[in-house]
């Protein structure tokens, strides 16, 4: 059995007769005007009152049925009334509305169709109906009956014999809808647990018991836009609801097994057209599903009726649940990503530190090689005493170097001590003037620097800058500017071309150490700047943001 949706429709007070005679006069095809003790009723396939019917003397209606009947029942009868009710009584003489004095005039399309005539001179009628097991007899007059075509206009006037009219009814015939529409439905109300096959059988049994199908002409005429109004009952459904939908049979035709064709589109997926007798069943099994039902008459398929609705989603299909899952997933992803990035960053820093240590390890042999060269030079010059002093100082400096190699940074105090030791050793071989200037505001015990970063630069100044120069001088200035620690190394040597490729190994090691250190930290950076000419060389090393927490 195919599942599909139909829209809940018109909930009217249809009275299904419980005998062989079915009441023909339903709610929407009768209209009553109460004139004192006299009732005036007109009947049509479908009657729509206009919104401006608030004048007790003038009323407008749209009728959709072809047949129109005006009936005036005899007074003092028990009448079964269903339809539009109006109290058109005016304050007047008691005999104003007496049926024996009541006259009627009918104008059709602005021409007199029936001139003023006493109601009591009209044709009599007599019928009986059974309502809720009780039989009701009704007798009265039929002052006017007619068949209308689209566009016909009737004006019915009422008056007391010989006086002016006191009631005017204006009726206009319009075409009813040609689309299929729901005229009746049954459901399990979403409460009663019932097998779908059993629900189908119960619904069919009820339809046959009430003898509803094709026994009434009430739905032959309907306004074109009335279907959309009837849909307003509700289009929200819930999983487990079951419905039996009865569609209006083709006008003036019998209902057959292939009178209709329909298809159901589920969640925008187009279905296939299927023949039907206009009794359609549905079983709403799935939550959170959108349905669109398209129904046509097979012999007149150009008129299409479309009904839409949806079943309420389960909790895991709701928007708030999807948003919650999305936020939770994003949170997990973010935490995982942050943890992963921290792990990668930590690994990179460890790699950078390992590379720095490797460079530092390379620096030690470079320093030892140069120191041994200095000692050899002293021995070759037969300066045995100075060579011994150099060896003692070199041993002390080498111990400091080995101690610092295990640390990423050490204090400025230790760095200055190592520099002084090295300067004293070099002055044994080549006397020169060395000046060390330290800003008094700098706490040398607390401020940290990279171990022996300046030593290769000082060595280059000695070996390549002031070598074999009279009045040679090297100045090292340590200062601070805001949060930056600054080392300025100046000599009065011969200078060099800063753009040319340098063959020295020490300067390259310094620059590589600075590059690796900058890659391993975000806040604290080191920059180096070199200026050189024939008057000498100045190298400035900036420890950026190193004094921020000092």
Cα-atom radius of gyration: 54 Å
Output the CATH homologous superfamily of the largest domain: Histidine kinase-like ATPase, C-terminal domain
CATH class of the largest domain: Alpha Beta
Reported for the largest beta sheet, the result is: 6 strands, mixed
Choose one word for the global shape. Answer: rod-shaped
Please provide the count of β strands. Answer: 27
What is the CATH topology classification name of the largest domain?
Heat Shock Protein 90
The level of helicity is: 25-40%
Mean pLDDT: 78
Instruction: Show unreliable segments.
Output: 1-27, 227-233
Structural class by sheet pairing and helices: alpha+beta
Q: How many domains make up the coordinates?
A: 3
Looking at the overall shape, the CATH architecture of the largest domain is 2-Layer Sandwich
Instruction: State the end-to-end CA separation.
Output: 82 Å
Strand sequence of the main sheet, in spatial order?
Answer: 6-1-2-5-10-9
The proportion of residues in beta strands is: 25-35%
- By DSSP (H or I, 4+ residues per run), the number of helices equals 7
Structure commentary:
The protein is of the alpha+beta class and 550 residues long. The protein folds into three domains: 27-173, no CATH class; 182-317, Sandwich (Immunoglobulin-like); 322-544, Heat Shock Protein 90. Helices cover 27% and strands 33% of the residues. A six-stranded mixed beta sheet has the order 6-1-2-5-10-9, with no helix packed on it. Strands 3-4-12-11-7-8 form a six-stranded mixed beta sheet, with no helix packed on it. Strands 14-20-19-16-17 form a five-stranded mixed beta sheet, with no helix packed on it. Helix 3 (319-380) runs antiparallel to helix 4 (384-404), helix 3 packs antiparallel against helix 7 (505-519) and helix 4 runs antiparallel to helix 5 (412-429). Residues 1-27 and 227-233 have low confidence and may be disordered.
């Amino acid at each position: 059995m195919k599942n599909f949706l139909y829209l809940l429709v018109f909930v009217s007070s249809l009275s299904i007769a419980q005998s062989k005679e079915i009441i023909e006069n339903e709610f929407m095809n009768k209209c009553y005007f109460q004139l004192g003790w006299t009732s005036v009723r007109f009947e049509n396939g479908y009657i729509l009152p206009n919104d401006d019917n608030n004048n007790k003397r003038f009323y407008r209606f749209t009728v959709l049925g072809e047949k129109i009947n005006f009936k005036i029942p005899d007074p003092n009868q028990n009448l079964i009334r269903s339809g539009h009710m109006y109290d058109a009584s005016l304050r007047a003489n008691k005999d104003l509305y007496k049926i024996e004095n009541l006259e009627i005039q009918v104008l059709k399309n602005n021409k007199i169709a029936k001139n003023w005539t006493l109601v009591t001179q009209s044709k009599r009628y007599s019928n009986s109906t059974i309502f809720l097991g009780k039989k009701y007899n009704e007798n009265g007059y039929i002052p006017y009956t007619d068949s209308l075509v689209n566009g016909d206009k009737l004006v019915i006037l009422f008056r007391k014999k010989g006086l002016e009219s006191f009631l005017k009814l204006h009726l206009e015939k319009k075409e009813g809808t040609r689309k299929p529409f729901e005229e009746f439905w049954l459901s399990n109300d979403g409460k009663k647990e019932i097998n779908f096959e059993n629900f189908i059988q119960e619904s069919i049994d009820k339809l046959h018991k009430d003898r509803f199908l094709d026994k009434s002409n009430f739905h032959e005429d309907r306004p074109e836009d009335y279907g959309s109004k009837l849909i307003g009952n509700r289009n929200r459904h819930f999983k487990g609801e079951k419905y039996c939908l009865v569609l209006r049979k083709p006008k003036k035709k019998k209902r057959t097994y292939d009178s209709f064709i329909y298809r159901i589109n589920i969640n925008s997926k187009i279905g296939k057209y299927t023949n039907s007798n206009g009794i359609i069943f549905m079983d709403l099994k799935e939550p959170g599903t959108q349905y669109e039902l398209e129904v046509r008459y097979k012999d007149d398929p150009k008129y299409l009726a479309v009904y839409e609705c949806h079943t309420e989603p389960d909790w895991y299909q709701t928007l708030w649940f999807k948003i919650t899952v999305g936020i939770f997933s994003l949170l997990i992803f973010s935490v995982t990503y942050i943890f992963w990035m921290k792990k990668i960053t930590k690994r990179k820093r460890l790699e950078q530190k390992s590379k720095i240590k490797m460079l530092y390890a390379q620096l030690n042999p470079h320093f030892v090689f140069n120191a041994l060269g200095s000692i050899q030079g002293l021995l070759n010059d037969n300066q045995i005493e100075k060579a011994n002093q150099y060896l003692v100082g070199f041993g002390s400096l080498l111990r400091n170097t080995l101690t610092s190699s295990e640390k990423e940074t050490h204090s400025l105090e230790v760095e200055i001590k190592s520099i002084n030791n090295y300067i004293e050793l070099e002055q044994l071989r080549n006397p020169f003037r060395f000046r060390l200037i330290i800003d008094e505001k700098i706490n040398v015990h607390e401020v940290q620097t990279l171990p022996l970063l300046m030593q290769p630069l000082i060595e280059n100044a000695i070996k390549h800058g002031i070598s074999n120069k009279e009045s040679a001088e090297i100045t090292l200035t340590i200062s601070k500017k805001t949060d930056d620690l600054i080392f300025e190394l100046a000599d009065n040597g011969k200078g060099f071309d800063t753009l040319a490729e340098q063959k020295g190994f020490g300067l390259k090691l310094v620059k590589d150490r600075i590059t690796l250190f900058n890659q391993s930290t975000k806040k604290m950076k080191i920059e180096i700047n070199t200026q050189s000419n024939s008057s000498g060389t100045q190298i400035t090393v900036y420890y950026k943001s190193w004094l921020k927490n000092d």
